[in-house]
Amino acid sequence: MTETALPDTESRAVATAVREALARRRMSRQALADAARISVSTLEKALAGRRPFTLATTLRLEEALGLPLREAPAAPPGSVRHAPEELGSYSRESAAWLEGRYLTLRPSFGTAGAIFSYRTEIAWDAVSARLVFREAERLDAPFAQAGCVSVPNLSGTIYLVTNWQGQHRLAILGRPTIQGEMYGVLTTLHAGRGAHLTPAACPLALIPDRDGPAAIESGRITPEMGAYPLCRRHLGRACEDGFAAFFACPA
């Protein structure tokens, strides 16, 4: 009976994984061949691409190395119902209450005393199997953020995470109130003069965008505007009600 050869693409991927494992462990090919109970000639030819890896050989190598060498088959889009472990492994059903549109409030970085208002939309992405968020109606549209939502079971804290080419922005929100409001902290970069960027943190409020909040326009809300007292009250809850704490530098 002939052994089942892996497809060329998968065989090349296995060869790459084996070479990386050997390099990390500083292990010789002879030692690996002995541990996997295969001939070193078979291993050499497969690594050089002169013959494909077979399923039997690959299984023996996986056992010898103690790690998987083949990628698991991709699940059809929409069939995965749980977010990845690094985002909290939540199911779509358990996090469905988070989906929706929110009025988002934070202090204005450019105008003292003013409040910056925009919308944040949270929805389930079937392709990546996770909740994602997207900011909209920002006065500074080029700086609008988008990313993924993490909901770990241990704390119940909600994280809105942006990772753009290694540059992170993070919103940390506490458990929602009975009205669905979420309060917390935003950590980001403040664009100063020229191209200068400074780490910045501020209180943050996400209010379900229904009824009253829907009437609040996006943009910069200043003290003389009618919506200011409501927005100021919401934003103040982040600190006043213990959803976030800010510590000053020592004197």
Automatic annotation (TrEMBL):
SUPFAM superfamilies: lambda repressor-like DNA-binding domains (SSF47413)
Lineage top rank: taxon: Bacteria
Pfam families: HTH_3 (PF01381)
Ranges where the HTH cro/C1-type domain occurs: 18-72
Listed InterPro entries: Cro/C1-type_HTH (IPR001387), Lambda_DNA-bd_dom_sf (IPR010982)
Record-annotated membrane-spanning stretches: none
Record protein name field: HTH cro/C1-type domain-containing protein
Organism: Methylobacterium crusticola
